[in-house]
């Protein structure tokens, strides 16, 4: 190994700790957000008359990452299929604190994230039960179509546009928050049109289905209809992992264990008022009226386990699965749900139930989204802008108090604690569902001679050739600047020789980490013009 100059000693010490970092599990990269990318056009009904609507996605990419085949996570926000404020809620947009926190967390670990908005609009205030149920089902149907269009958009960019976002089209996750969870579950399981013409989806007066494919298009959104424009119909819509935070499934029969279905993981709060923990009524915040009977997260994940969709998750590394002992406790813990009085086992594999007491400060307070938070001053500014632009009369303080009614001790600290638990559930399962190869690190620092390491030329002008012996093929190469920042990385190399181009690396001193399966060498390199 080359001598490391005293000037770089502090960086070297830092990298002894950084050597334990694992892509996909630890924060390694910076985060860059590209907002308002068009991913498609479809017919929206939010203004009343059907009109074409441009669909948007904010794309988050890792800064300092040279890997060009990265897993993609599509994040669907909550909002009850209506715009923020109009839905009686503070949340419901790509800019929600929970959305941006999840996106930043994943991107810093080497994922590409697309936080997308789908078509919105339904009639929650209608006094007619058939109208409420049909318009909500139609809204969810359109949103599932848009979710699948967004998947196809990214696959199209790989096949036709030179892969500008650096994704692996075979490693895609749909991660839904609240009503977005309906999309993560529905886009994974709704693979037969007959599943949306069940008896519960038939108008009780006209005896006609709520969903008519000649009006709304097929379940993938790949056929032209009165309220459907096909987007990228030649690309597949499937994905590998569904993550649900507090959403529900339209009907349990949608899950049937077909090979096209993803693996499923999820969380739910035991006293969620708006979506069932196990199975039951869906209530919307706008009017707090019944809309439909649905399958909750706990039951849906159990079915996915039983049907074989989650067989791949049986290989999760137990060293990474820090919630495993708590999940085992929940699997054997019988509870009575405080709102529905259903007596069930609290847990199942690949699911985590948040046991939140119904009583808060002596008052019954149902909580279903403890991972959400907001800033009152920001809310006031948003409300003022919306009122000025739309002529509405929303009141920020009233909305704030309404939010506190189901999240009374809301704060960034509280929200992030819940997200940390959710990440502990999801990340080790994402590793195996997507085949990412992340596992507990057993890498040790060794001398260059132990792996037969050779680097040349050094100083580097155009590229650096790195070689090891055949017994220690290179897994990855990480290059750090004097501040300890990762400025260049090549992962999943799996060969005994690799040429690392300089690209835009500025002249100066750097430390390079060459990692094999279980060994790591840190050495100095110099870049010259």
Helix fraction bin: 25-40%
**Which parts are unreliable, with pLDDT below 50 for 5 consecutive residues or more?**
1-7, 9-19
Distance between the termini: 23 Å
What's the mean pLDDT score?
92
| Total DSSP E strands | 23
Number of domains: 2
Q: How many helices in DSSP terms?
A: 10
CATH architecture of the largest domain: 3-Layer(aba) Sandwich
Q: CATH H-level name of the largest domain... which superfamily? A: Alpha/Beta hydrolase fold, catalytic domain
Q: What is the fold named in CATH at topology level of the largest domain? A: Rossmann fold
Radius of gyration (Å):
25 Å
Instruction: For the largest sheet, list the strands in their spatial order.
Output: 1-2-4-3-5-6-8-13
> Main β-sheet, in a few words?
8 strands, mixed
Structural class computed from helices and strand pairing: alpha/beta
Shape: globular
Oligomer: single chain
Question: Can you offer a commentary on this structure?
Answer:
With 529 residues, this protein is α/β, with parallel strands linked by helices. The chain folds into two domains: 100 residues, Immunoglobulin-like (Sandwich); 354 residues, Rossmann fold (3-Layer(aba) Sandwich), CATH 3.40.50. The strands form six sheets. It has an eight-stranded mixed sheet with strand order 1-2-4-3-5-6-8-13, sandwiched between helices. α3 crosses α4. The N terminus is likely disordered.
């Amino acid at each position: 190994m080359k001598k490391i100059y005293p000037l770089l000693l502090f960086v070297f010490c830092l990298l002894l700790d950084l050597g334990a970092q694992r892509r996909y599990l630890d924060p390694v990269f910076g985060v860059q957000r590209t907002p308002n990318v068009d991913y498609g056009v479809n017919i929206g009904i939010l203004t009343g008359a059907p009109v074409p609507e441009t669909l948007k996605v904010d794309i988050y990419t890792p800064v300092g990452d040279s890997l060009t085949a990265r897993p993609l996570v599509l994040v669907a926000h909550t909002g009850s299929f209506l715009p923020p404020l109009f839905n009686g809620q503070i949340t419901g947009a790509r800019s929600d604190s929970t959305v941006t926190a999840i996106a930043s967390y994943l991107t810093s670990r080497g994922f590409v994230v697309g936080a997308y908005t789908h078509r919105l609009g339904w009639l929650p205030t209608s006094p007619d039960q058939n109208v409420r149920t049909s318009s909500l089902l139609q809204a969810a149907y359109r949103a599932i179509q848009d979710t699948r269009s967004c998947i196809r958009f990214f696959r199209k960019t790989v096949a036709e546009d030179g892969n500008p976002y650096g994704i692996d089209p075979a490693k895609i996750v749909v991660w839904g928050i609240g009503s977005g969870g309906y999309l993560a579950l529905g886009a994974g399981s709704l693979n037969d049109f007959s599943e949306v013409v069940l008896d519960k989806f038939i108008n009780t007066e006209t005896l006609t289905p709520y969903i008519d494919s000649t009006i709304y298009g097929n379940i993938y959104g790949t056929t032209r209809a009165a309220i459907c424009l096909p987007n990228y119909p030649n690309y597949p819509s499937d994905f590998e992992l569904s993550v649900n935070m507090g959403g529900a499934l339209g009907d349990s029969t949608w899950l049937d264990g077909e090979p096209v279905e993803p693996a499923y993981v999820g969380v739910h709060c035991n006293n969620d008022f708006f979506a069932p923990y196990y199975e039951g009524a869906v209530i919307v915040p706008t009017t707090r009226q019944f809309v439909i009977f649905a399958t909750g997260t706990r039951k849906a994940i159990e079915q996915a386990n039983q049907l074989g969709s989650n067989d791949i998750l049986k290989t999760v590394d137990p060293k990474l699965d820090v919630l495993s002992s708590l999940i085992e406790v929940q699997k054997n813990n019988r509870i009575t749900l405080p709102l529905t009085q259903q007596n069930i086992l609290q847990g199942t594999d690949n699911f985590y139930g948040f046991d939140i007491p119904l009583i808060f400060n002596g008052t019954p307070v149902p909580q279903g989204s403890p991972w959400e938070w907001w800033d009152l001053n920001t809310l006031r500014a948003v409300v003022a802008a919306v009122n000025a632009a739309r002529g509405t009369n929303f009141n920020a303080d009233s909305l704030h108090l309404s939010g506190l009614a189901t999240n009374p001790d809301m704060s960034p600290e509280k929200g992030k604690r819940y997200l940390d638990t959710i990440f502990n559930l999801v990340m080790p399962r994402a590793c195996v569902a997507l085949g990412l190869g992340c596992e507990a690190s057993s890498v040790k620092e060794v001398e260059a001679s132990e792996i037969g390491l050779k680097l040349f030329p050094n100083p580097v002008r155009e590229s650096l050739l790195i070689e090891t012996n055949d017994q220690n093929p290179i897994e990855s190469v990480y290059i750090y600047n004097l501040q300890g920042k990762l400025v260049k990385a090549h992962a999943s190399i799996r060969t005994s020789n690799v040429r690392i181009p300089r690209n835009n690396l500025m002249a100066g001193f750097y430390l390079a980490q060459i990692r094999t399966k279980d060994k790591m060498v840190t050495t100095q390199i110099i870049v010259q013009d």
